Amino acid sequence: MRVRTAFALVAVPALLLATSACSGKSGSASGSGTAGGSDVTLTYWASNQGTSLDNDKEVLTPVLDAFTQQTGIKVKLEVIGWHDLQTRIQTAVTSGQGPDVVNIGNTWAVSLQATKAFLPLDASAMKTIGGSDKFVKTALDTGGAAGTDPTSVPLYGLAYGMYYNKAMFAAAGLQPPTTWEDMVADAKKLTDPSKGQYGMALAAGSYTENNHFAFIDAAQNGADLFDSSGKPTFTSDGVVNGIVRYLDLMQTDKVVNPSNAQYDNGTKAVADFATGKVAMILNQNNADATIKKNGMTSDKYGVVAFPAPKDAKSQVASHVAGINISVFKNTKHKDQALQFLKYMTSADVQGQLDKPFSALPVLKDAKAVFTDNAQEAATFTDIYNKRAKPLPLVPAEDQYESTVGKAMNAMFASIATGGTVSAADVKAALQTAQDQVAASVG
Amino acid sequence: MTTTLQRPRKAPPASPGPHDRRRRARWWLPYALLAPAVLMELLIHLVPMLTGIWMSFTQLTKFFISSWTEAPFVGLKNYRVALDVHGAVGSSLLRSFGITCAYTMLVVVISWVLGMAAAVVLQRPFRGRSGVRTLFLVPYAVPMYAGVITWNFMLQRDTGVINHLLVDDLGIGSGKPFWLIGSRAFTSIVIVAIWRLWPFAFLMLMAGLQSVPSDVYEASAMDGAHAFRQWRSITLPMLRPVNVVLVLVMSLWVFNDFNTPYVLFGTAQPAAGDLISFHIYNASFLTWNFGAGSAMSVLLLLFLLLVTGVYLTVVNRRSQRA
Amino acid sequence: MHDTRAFKAFRAVVVTVLALFTLLPLYVMATSAMKPLRDVQGPFTWWPSTVTLEPFVDMWTTVPLARYFVNSAVVATSATLASLVVAIFAAFAVSRYRFPGRAAFTTTVLSTQMFPGVLFLLPLFIIFVNLDQSAGIQLVGTRAGLVITYLTFSLPFSIWMLAGYFDGIPRELDEAARVDGCSPMGALVRVVLPAARPGVIAVAIYGFMTAWGEVLFASVMTTDVNRTLAVGLREYSTQTNVYWNEIMAASLVVSVPVVVGFLLLQRYFVAGLTAGAVK
């Protein structure tokens, strides 16, 4: 008898639920498409920018509602976490069934362009969006390979800066560094493992962060990751030495807690900074939200450009980071999608979104509003507009990120667990990464 | 029944009788009964798998993915790359394969030992037996991701319970070790997998022990058989049919395990925890090289078919001799 | 017959060690769920600095957990029921009939256990999309798509176990029902199924847990409409923070119904295994 009760308990709700089981219809490009504009719904995939997926939704919903009011075009929003974004985009590309508009990390832009699944924005499309002149030039450069019509335009701008704790610097009688050597010297003075205090924190277990610094440090040495024909050149001295310099912050300078080898995203390093465990972090400007959430106000820290060595060939301080926005080629609502791009990249909307998402304006002459710390705003604007270089604009860029980034994870792990990583080891690991990239480019 | 593949041989005897004619008239009935299962298997397993095999002969990279039917045919190239142990791709695949073999052996053997110990110990009544039994089954019922993510939290170097327990409370070693990066990551994933799997071994062996008639034990107890000898000479042989299936099923599950490394390590997987399913997932999805990823999957499938075939042949032959 | 002292000592050791091993994660899960965020970001403590139930409140808003919960419940229950029906039919055929193709069927179904999921993940997705485009059957981003995927995951083990169970039910029973005028299906429903109850329950439990915990396919096949708990839990680590206390609270909440259900029904699970798989 008890079995029957148990069975009924399971079966009855199940049947009730099963009747509704198939009603969840996903948004897709196959809307109820009359091209007139009045009855169109665009599906928009937005990557996670705020403190949670729901927070993103809260921020974006009023902005999208205003768009609907202006144009009559409805927008169905889905915020996607970074864990899922790449697979979701891949399956959308493969199947041709995806959203109308998507926003993505701009470093993937050229790799995604190579899939031919995104709408090339030719001159007339660009004009609809508001003209290519309105964007910061380096930011727009990330939208596609050189000499092609871009398949994405910048939406939110981000750049790396070196955050420092004002009180800790003042207590040690230090000025914010302007060269790599100064930075290391300051960090050493601020490191005291017995108190659990370190000069710097790095997201040393995050392959995305690691590959960014491999690029920036190599760029400071004047080295490129790919040659003009798109072949990887990871093993050149400039790249190897750049990576060694970055690894040595933990290995020989010992200004980084070995624990950081386990930091698989930027947040943990930022939390250490905000709670006074470390004096400096290298982070993009969207760290602000996390810093605030951990209880540090914007007057307690300053930001300078990530310093290059004294003899650096270039003063590059960041890659051109940020989020780009694209239209899926399969969309049935091309005109409306372009209208939407124009709206999202308009000065008004940028002004509204930059603050909650801690983003830099991607528009020329726009003022940074993401922080009330004027010095920080000026520094980041300067870095973004003048000292940032795009990551390699080649289709294999995404593979550079994963192979080199993961190789660096492994090297940091080896340092943290007591091993040593020599320049020869770095070179060997980069050779493997290079072979892997070459093998898959075919 | 003895093994999975023996069941067909043990098909019911066609009983002669008055229903024979009616049964022949309904020759289609078993097929109709199988139809839903066959359809589902075709749709979800077989057709996709054949598509995957076809993909393994193409250069399905990001350049062709949006029109994947037109991906150029490259013959055995993907297989050559995957099997070239001197190349970067092949050597890392081989490494991952070695790690996975070691992982499978350790997890299956230890889970079996723990499950057997618990089943034997709980075979005879004592106070609190049912409570203990219930407790032991909990890890099997906890949803996989909830369990593994808890372990991830526990294995954090600075904030995790494991280091707190070992270093701060018990004072073992100096300096907190890393559990999720470096070479210890392998130990970690083995422990986590055992935590999840051993209750299944316990459950199956407990079920198996229940079907061992107790008079067998009583007879041997009168002979004064020692507990361990009793286990070896009576329990183990009686459990042989269970063990044959249990070891096979567990090995296949563990070898193909994707979820544990995926949830335990996330995107920051260490080389020591590079299990083969996860390796192939990264080779396919992270680098967009679905052709190469499919070729690796097919190789993995062939290996498993071979091992399973050999295993079942050996097991069957031995049981026929017995 | 009484237990020797050595056996009792062995028993004490085994029970203690395994109980600690089993309990530690459960303890960490339960206590961390009651800690403020500050506690879980610092060094581990055995007890919260202040016991708070906030994580249990906040977890519903950080991630739309309630919706994922409903999705998981619907998907897992539907997949279980569907798989049960399909498996019962197939197992009945395999157990009661001899027909050409029978061996091929059992071998093929069992060998699908060997398929690496990665091999057919992308192709399956493409097939789903094509079904949508050509036949208008929407499977991607719907619960239905997940249901039919998951039902096949538990199918091989279920068929195999049920067939074993059915084999153990004397054929004279269905023959008698047939003589009484039942059709073969009538015999299945009136005679075989009631006798196989523990086996059926065991298979249902297995199917439910398989569907409730699946991660790989869910990560590709779900959108925010049909996302299941397995994937949804990852969203607690966002761009700006990792909410460990909320992750632990959510893990606890998603585990409790399954664990309780399983423990209530474990008797039948063991009985089902005993008779079905372990003859």
Description:
The complex is a heterotrimer of chains A (442), B (322) and C (279). Chain A is of the alpha/beta class and 442 residues long. Chain A has helices at residues 2-19, 53-71, 82-95, 109-113, 123-129, 137-141, 166-171, 180-189, 207-220, 237-251, 266-274, 287-293, 334-344, 347-354, 374-386, 397-416, 423-441; strands at 41-47, 74-80, 101-105, 152-158, 160-165, 198-201, 278-284, 301-304, 318-319, 321-327, 388-389. Helices cover 45% and strands 13% of the residues of chain A. In chain A, strands 2-1-3-10-4 form a 5-stranded mixed β-sheet. In chain A, strand 1, helix 2 and strand 2 form a beta-alpha-beta unit. In chain A, helix 10 packs across helix 17 (423-441) and helix 16 packs antiparallel against helix 17. The longest helix of chain A is centred in the last third of the chain and has 20 residues, at 397-416. The radius of gyration of chain A is 24 Å and the shape is globular. With 322 residues, chain B is mostly helical. Chain B has a single domain, classed as Orthogonal Bundle (MetI-like fold). The longest helix of chain B is centred in the N-terminal third of the chain and has 34 residues, at 88-121. Chain C has helices at 5-32, 37-41, 54-62, 65-96, 102-111, 117-135, 143-167, 171-179, 184-195, 197-213, 216-221, 229-232, 244-276.
